[in-house]
């Protein structure tokens, strides 16, 4: 049986733990999460365990990426089951998670944090050029909050490698640029999106959905796959470039043909895989990220935004 992870609550505890790993010349992988762990998180943890001497997981619902009108209080907080999931899933493996960082808000934001950006005090990080579009258009302060908390976490844990999932494609681009421009000595590794059997991307927000809506939400990825098949067909027929509008209109037509009239497509874009600029044409070899956000009914009333993407090569 592998040892249970250490629970670290403060920055100083993490730094003390990390210092010993440095002295031992041991590598550290890091999986930052907001909790409500699912199989997608576990796949990131498994990758880190396979590639590093030690793995650290953080569980922290980051307030600075929520606007005042968003669902910070409603966001699922399942610490006990998260800890149990980590212990159970990796108990039979040769290595378990070495440490779990579970800080209080006051630990991560020593100057305090107000959800209203105009009232915030202290240091914050913005990654300009890749934060304003797509998710950033719908949630203007979201990536400022993500970049800020990831900067803090990487500064505390100083891992050799940090692991993220492809589902949050824009977030991955933001973080890669953050690490590059802030000269952070960490490798960013992006792993494929883990999906439910019906194709729905695994997400903590899926907990808000009824079984019926989860089933119907499979159309999000099926539509993206439909667009991918249109693109691949054009490339196989010798096209040197494919108009984005052709791919996107086919995906939208697929969505309209589905019996989900109460689903609302908030955006559907084809973006450059590194700069996130909107693409008029997709060039094979450069490719594109085709991403979407769809608002679906939440169990008990209201809506949940589901995001997904597919990578065209």
From TrEMBL:
One of its GO terms (molecular function) is ATP binding. CDD domains: PanC. Gene3D superfamilies: HUPs (3.40.50.620), Pantoate-beta-alanine ligase, C-terminal domain (3.30.1300.10). The keyword ATP-binding applies. One of its GO terms (biological process) is pantothenate biosynthetic process. Keywords: ATP-binding, Ligase, Nucleotide-binding, Pantothenate biosynthesis. This is Pantoate--beta-alanine ligase.
